[in-house]
Design goal:
Blueprint (H helix, E strand, L loop, with lengths): L7 H19 L4 E2 L1 H8 L3 H9 L11 E2 H11 L6 E6 L3 H7 L3 H4 L2 E8 L8 E2 L2 E5 L3 H7 L4 E4 L3 H13 L4 E4 L12 E4 L2 H35 L4 H7 L1
Parallel strand pairs: 3-4, 3-7, 4-6, 7-8, 8-9
Antiparallel strand pairs: 1-2, 5-6
Helix pairs in contact: 1-4, 2-3, 9-10
Length: about 240
């Protein structure tokens, strides 16, 4: 397939396709049309076809998509058909929660090391992996082929640690520190801001409340107008 530029919006939707197709496989669904898939994903059937056409299409007219085949192919596109060794820097609550998330390994992400600066945590095992000190990190990186580093460190430590990671050959950083990281072009950084996601949720909740309040006020005004014109009971209810 000829190399082509894929939009970030399409790339962000691929994990959703993968997740929903996995659920369909668990339900023993063998094939699905773009229309039925669109109902599950709340994306138009046309958008689904356009997205998948970026990678060759995968569907057959009159048949739809073979669920298992499409699941496997999207997994390959996402790079989930290979093992990605990764480490966690910061063994606090978030770091340990990520270390205990077993679905990572099902997707090919293998945790090989956990690091922290707190000597109290040294030697404590999380899912069989002992927490090491950050001072041991450079040697560990030289002796192990680590692809991905997960940062759950405080903001003031993240940039310093990112430099150490990059200097030691790390090419992918999943950053949970509350700061955006600058990196060379050959290093991929995915910044995750949990508070921003929560604020977006707060905004949508506020919008919903405002719309609900406005609709309620409109109904009250319509009812008042009906009553003022002499309508009562059922007739007012019908009009509002």
């Amino acid at each position: 397939m000829e190399a082509k530029e894929i939009s970030k919006a399409v790339i962000k939707r691929l994990p959703r396709y993968y997740r929903y197709l996995g659920e369909l496989m668990e339900e023993n669904v063998e094939r699905i049309s773009s229309n039925d898939l669109s109902k599950k994903m709340h994306v138009t059937a046309s958008q689904i076809r356009q997205d998948l056409n970026n990678f060759g299409g995968f569907g057959q007219q009159g048949y739809g998509y073979n669920v298992r085949y499409l699941y496997t192919e999207i997994g390959k596109i996402l790079g989930l058909d290979t093992v990605h060794p990764m480490i966690i820097l910061g063994a606090g609550n978030l770091g340990q929660a990520l270390a205990n998330y077993v679905d990572f390994e099902k997707r090919g992400f293998k945790l090989v090391g956990i690091f922290d600066v707190n000597p109290v945590l040294e030697g404590i095992a999380v899912r069989g992996i002992e927490i090491q000190m950050l001072s041991d990190l450079p040697l560990f990186l030289k002796e192990n082929e680590v692809e991905i580093a997960i940062l759950t460190l405080p903001k003031n430590k993240a940039k310093e640690m990112a430099k150490i990671l990059i200097d030691n050959g790390i090419k992918a950083i999943w950053n949970f520190a509350h700061t955006d990281l600058d990196a060379p072009e050959d290093v991929i950084v995915e910044n995750v801001h949990l508070s921003e996601s929560l604020m977006a949720l707060s905004y949508n909740l506020s919008q919903y409340r405002n719309e609900h309040k406005e609709n309620k006020e409109k109904k009250s005004k319509r009812t008042a107008a009906c009553l003022a014109e002499g309508f009562t009971g059922d007739r007012a209810a019908v009009l509002h």
